[in-house]
Amino acid sequence: MLTLAIDCSARFCSVALYQGGENRVVAEASPEIGRGHAEQLPAILQTVLDDAGVTLSQVERLGVTIGPGSFAGIRVGVAFVRGLALANAVPVVGVGSLEAIAIPAARAKTAPVMAVLDARRDRVWALIAGADGQITSSAAEWTPDEAAVEAARTGVWLLGSGAALLAAEDASLASRVIGDSSAPAIADVARLASHLDPRSNPPEPRYLRDADAKPQTGFALPHEVV
């Protein structure tokens, strides 16, 4: 099965094509763009398709990261992939950003791994995968201190941009840090997307925090009578 995966949850705009039958990433690109995912994603997708020598009509499944991560980036990725799914009549699955970081690492180390991302404002987003890749602690927002206590209690390895924050709370955790990535590898997103059930993994954003922008209340400009 040929799976197309897209990740816009962080400062990268990542696309990959994965051939499940061969366990092979056919083509991928992960340029660091900061912002502007909506403007750059179509061209990056076309580059990956061209590199692979395939067309969208040959893609059999779609996957997209659903967060946590950038509010705007997640909305762009999810909306884009939903449109492709409708236009090409193929199934689409949502892949959690933290799952795509923790599960491959836990399986590779055959040990529990906490994926932990810096959520700013003295918060982190974290999730724990066991040695077999099963989720043992679901995605949640923590203070660094809370997450550090949990990491020390469970003896996990730490992976992600928030790992250093936990090590700053508990120096004994510094030796447990195995990486500081701010987003999952797009190849790992594609591999997970290739076997997830679309019925139980819908492409719906998972923010773990309310949006900053909110409707104004208690203030309204009078309507001008024309």
TrEMBL record:
Q: What highest taxon heads this organism's lineage?
A: Bacteria
Q: Which parts of the sequence belong to the Gcp-like domain?
A: 34-127
Q: Which keywords belong to this entry?
A: Acyltransferase, Transferase
Ranges for the region named Disordered are 195-226
Q: Which Pfam families match?
A: TsaD (PF00814)
**Keyword flag Cell cycle:** no
A molecular-function term among this protein's GO annotations: tRNA N(6)-L-threonylcarbamoyladenine synthase activity
What broad class of enzyme is this? Answer: transferase
Q: Give its E.C. classification number.
A: 2.3.1.234
- Fetch the Gene3D superfamilies from UniProt: 3.30.420.40
Please name the NCBIfam families in this protein's record.
T6A_YeaZ (TIGR03725)
Identify this protein by name. Answer: tRNA (Adenosine(37)-N6)-threonylcarbamoyltransferase complex dimerization subunit type 1 TsaB
